[in-house]
Automatic annotation (TrEMBL):
SUPFAM superfamilies: alpha/beta-Hydrolases. Keywords: Coiled coil, Hydrolase. It comes from Flavobacterium soyangense. It holds the Pfam family Abhydrolase_1. This is Alpha/beta hydrolase. One of its GO terms (molecular function) is serine hydrolase activity. It comes from the Bacteria. The keyword Coiled coil applies.
Length: 256
């Protein structure tokens, strides 16, 4: 039976600090880029994948607690954080899924749990579709499967137009590419999610940037998925509602 969690809690406001190279941080060459990563804890792997314009620093409120139970693997996606970027190569989710697959191969991780936020959740869903044998449990927060699932989709187009108008010296190239990623991709259908075999938890804030009906349909399309809607939460539920977010995700990941 599918499970839906509706839980009340006050908002916790937290700031995300700038990412710094850690003493145990490393780089790995995959798919034409250098990906920066850090690992904390021991045990079953838990790969955390961040959102569009940020880095894995977005998970700073999860690492300490989650690394008590899992080997937490944090990676900066191409062009973000401390990872490098390929100019002239279109940024797509399929490209990033390939990055992650090769990254896991380089680290000799055969199978992993995945926690993806925003675009990281999209990557997680696509990865579970393409490489089901490599995913144990999947958690997504604030993920969509086609651009129109975003509340302020038209605003992203306006942002790109402004960036392009002020891009005489190509200083906005990366920002344009990042915005175009979410304007044109992903292009899944709900039925594409039917093949996901991993146990899956779909999370969203009750006033998320992803449309509520879109999140609900994603949940309904994945066999035996679970759904958690965090109240008084925006797209950044993992930052605003850290205690609740961590409790729900850890409960899901650790249950048999």
């Amino acid at each position: 039976m599918k499970k839906i969690f509706f839980i009340l809690i006050a908002i916790i406001s937290l700031n995300i600090s700038a990412q710094k190279l850690h003493e145990n941080g490393k780089y790995v060459d995959v798919n034409g880029v250098k990906l920066y990563y850090e690992i904390y804890g021991k045990g079953e792997p838990l790969l955390m994948i961040h959102g569009n314009g940020g880095s894995f620093v977005c998970f700073e409120n999860q690492v300490a607690e989650f690394s008590k139970h899992f080997k937490v693997v944090l990676v900066d996606c191409r062009g973000r954080g401390n990872s490098s970027y390929q100019k002239g190569v279109e940024l797509t989710f399929d490209l990033q899924v390939k990055d992650i697959n090769l990254f896991l191969d380089k680290l000799n991780i055969k199978k992993t749990n995945i926690l993806g936020w925003s675009d990281g959740g999209i990557i997680g869903l696509l990865f579970a579709i393409k490489y089901p044998e490599k995913v144990n449990k999947l958690v997504t927060s604030g993920a969509n499967i086609f651009p129109e699932g975003v509340v302020h989709f038209d605003d992203m187009k306006k942002t790109v137009a402004k960036l392009e108008n002020k891009n005489k010296n190509h200083e906005n190239d990366l920002d344009i590419d990042l915005n175009n990623l979410d304007i044109y991709y992903p292009n899944l259908k709900y039925s594409d999610l039917n093949v996901i075999k991993s146990k899956t938890l779909i999370i969203a804030g009750d006033h998320d940037e992803i449309k509520g009906e879109h999140t609900l349909k994603i949940y309904e399309s994945i066999p035996d998925a679970q759904l958690a809607i965090l109240p008084n939460s925006s797209h950044s539920a993992l930052i605003e509602n850290t205690t609740l977010f961590n409790e729900i995700v850890l409960h899901f990941l650790m249950q048999q």
